[in-house]
Amino acid sequence: MIQVSGPYYYKIMKFIFKISKLDNFYFFISNLTEFHFSCRKHFNADWIAATGPLSQEEEKVLNELLPIFKKYGFDEKLYLGKYFYCPDEQAKWENLKKCLSETEYKKLAIAFRLFEGRFNKIYNQTLLQNWELALKKELSSERFLKLFNFAQQFFNAEKVDSVLNVHLLMSPSMTWSASGNANLGDKDITLEVPMFNLTEEQVELAVCILLHELSHIWFENSSNYEIVKKLFGDNFPMIKEILIDSISPSGFPAQKYSKASNPFKRFLFHNLADGLKAYENFISNKEVDRQKLSVYISWLIYPLVSYYYVNNKILDKKFIEAVFKIIKKADDLYSAA
């Protein structure tokens, strides 16, 4: 358990790490179905390369699981992951059985039995435990404390739970940094860590992703959430990610915090040319790659975020209006700041 406190708020945030073989097994199977665009296809390629081609029976079972995972999706109220990640170990299957139909439950149970041998070839609890130790050390650093406190202040997170459960999941990638998910409620996030790349750089990046997911919880419980949602309409999902990314992992505050890693170079700099093209398409009402567009907008608000960081300012109407002007391609992009 890690405790983080600081000058802006007297509350103490406790990070409690959870390592569960069953949770990782669920992540493995759900990702193999590729039921959602956010599933990591390159993870599947690496896992299959390490454990052998899928059999016809395995492919059949995954196809049968696909509509089940799509049905429940990533909505916080329906998401099947919460029945694995959040409860105590002994209650996971029991709680899941209450949620699924008898047929759905049976198909999922069959999948777990079928893929158990394949999963056992890649699961390594010791490496996850090593990640936990490295993350605990980093979360205790003064540098992270300053970044944490600014993010908490920026998103005006006064009324939040003081405990965050961090469920560690394994990523097989040698090149992909950490990633995460915050659709488990206000007390839990998942953090996918690259199992074979436990370096100082990767630990810093993982901590920034952890803070990103925590910031989702803070932002979605703040008064600004509905303001931004109403103002940006269909663009809200993209803008929400940009606002949170602008603090961590790709913004000036994360760059200021980092020593071994370089968030600016990793997340922004090498994508700017494609981002500009996406932005030009966007303002011309053409088809656009929203991920590349997000990168470019993050680049445009980078100076604004640095101003807010240096001056310890919170997310406010002026900041939101400045982002809105960028979306609408106003001439005075930063006049609101």
Structure keywords:
5-stranded mixed sheet, 5 strands, globular, 2 domains, 337 residues
Provide structural commentary.
By secondary structure, the protein is an alpha/beta fold. It has two domains: 1-221, no CATH class; 224-327, no CATH class. It is 59% helix and 8% strand. It has 17 helices and five strands. The protein has helices at 21-33, 41-51, 56-72, 81-85, 92-99, 102-122, 125-139, 142-154, 200-220, 224-232, 236-245, 252-257, 263-268, 272-283, 290-300, 302-310, 317-327, and strands at 2-4, 13-18, 163-171, 179-181, 188-194. Strands 1-2-3-5-4 form a five-stranded mixed β-sheet, with helices on both faces. A hairpin with a 6-residue loop joins strand 4 and strand 5 (188-194). Helix 1 packs across helix 6 (102-122) and helix 11 packs across helix 15 (290-300). The chain starts with a strand and ends in a 10-residue tail after the last helix. Mean pLDDT is 89; it is low at 5-10 and 330-337.
Q: How would you sum up this structure in a few lines?
A:
With 337 residues, the protein is of the alpha/beta class. The chain contains 17 helices and 5 strands.
